[in-house]
Amino acid sequence: MRQEFGRDAVILHTAQKKPWLWGRFGPRRYEVVGAFDPNISSSSRRNDRDGVNSANASTRAGVQRQTVEPSRPPTADTRPDPAWSEAMLKVYSRLIRVDIPRDLAVNLIKEVLSKLPKEEWNNEARLWEGLNKAAAGRIKSCEPWEFNGKQHVVALIGPTGVGKTTTIAKLAANFSLVAGRKVGLITLDTYRIAAVEQLKTYAEIIGLPVQVAYSPKELKEALRKLQDKDLILIDTAGHSQNNQLHMAELRNFFEGVEAEIHLVISATTKPRDVDEIISVFGQLPINRVIVTKLDETSAYGVLLHTCERARVPIAFVTTGQGVPEDIEVADGQRIAQLILGDA
Q1: Which of 126, 184, 278, 304 has a C-alpha 20 to 30 A away from that of 85?
Q2: Domain range 152-339, CATH class
Q3: Which pTM does this prediction carry?
Q4: Backbone phi and psi for residue 78, each to the nearest 5 degrees, phi listed first
Q5: What is residue 168's predicted lDDT score, i.e. its pLDDT?
Q6: Cβ(277)–Cβ(76) below 8 Å
């Protein structure tokens, strides 16, 4: 592999295959699964053999700096509606400061105005009270799974670095150790060896079985091995929303598999990136959203924006790295208060 693809090629998995003719005759065969960076050209790989770190050079070349000007409060000339009062303008500015996109902020205020008598349109306190109700009404949440003899297969998908593996460990620990359910784990994240080891470590500590699947066929086999479990949690590799090849692979894994798909998004994600993530990962039928890393930001407008764009409930939010304690069942009213800075 390294002669063919360069010294950075990594062997991920090997398996002995059955001989030909129903497993009785023929030579031994082996399947080897490996990986290398396809963005590095063959000439770059040859240079790499000579000691040139082309991967780092590629990374440096890909870094772009972008200057973002701080947002300024709207003035009379820039307000969304010239007829808005000063109170409306102040409320609008507060919404922008908590990272609610401008179009969504305008829609929220219009919704509040439609329900308030005109004589209260200049009452900032009444406007803000109405915004709390409007935001809570737009945030859908759901209760944890009810089992009643039914098995739940749940897959977590999403971009790299949002905390899918840690979230699975939190869910597994809570449902196994606290709720007393039989839980099994499967990982499809074979791109990173460390990810497999991380999930195996969590599984060993909690005392749960874990299966590793390198192909759609192996995923189905893993599900059969865990058919006696109440809850099966599936970890997937993090993918950039710009990588269509990885999305095609992900779709292949879940073709013919009845699984509840949870999209995991970090609370630190920019609203425009949320749009792209939901658009791309929406190639799979998303059933729920999990929002992570609430502890890493002080502006939570992305939660409301995610609900608006995904059109599915938020199931859980996570508030730190602690396993199993830093996870909560989502509650629409509390999330609305958090977004608006009232909690």
Answers
A1: 304
A2: alpha beta
A3: 0.72
A4: -110, 0
A5: 95
A6: no
